[in-house]
């Protein structure tokens, strides 16, 4: 189970790296004016999302494996699972925003995406505290 735990951590870190960077690309895309820059950002966004989505699946799958193997229980785990579901929704919402950018239908400015980019930081902070401290 320690191998599964190690790979779970690697997958989660990789998933978060993508979730930190993709909205940052959205910030740049919302500010871009040059056609070449916009095309490059569309390419980068699409490749990153396609790369990080299977990693998210591996993080979730290994997390379920750990849950079944260890049989964790407690309020902290329920809170963590709620945050994971929020993160999955965030991930898929990023995919929706990606499609809007790809179709040149973005209606939000860079300030929105700067705030949007902070959500995974808050989720990560809460999850690490819940898993480490197990406050309830």
Structure characterization notes:
- The structure is a single chain.
- The chain has one domain.
- The protein is built from five helices and no strands.
Q: Total domains, how many?
A: 1
Helix content: over 70%
What's the helix count? 5
Helix/strand order, N-terminal first: HHHHH
User: Structural class, judged by helices and strands?
Assistant: mainly alpha
Computed CA radius of gyration, to the nearest angstrom: 17 Å
Overall average pLDDT: 97
Quick structural summary:
The chain has 136 residues and is mostly helical. It has helices at 2-31, 35-70, 75-102, 110-116, 119-133. The chain has 5 helices and no strands.
Main attributes of the structure:
136 residues; mainly alpha
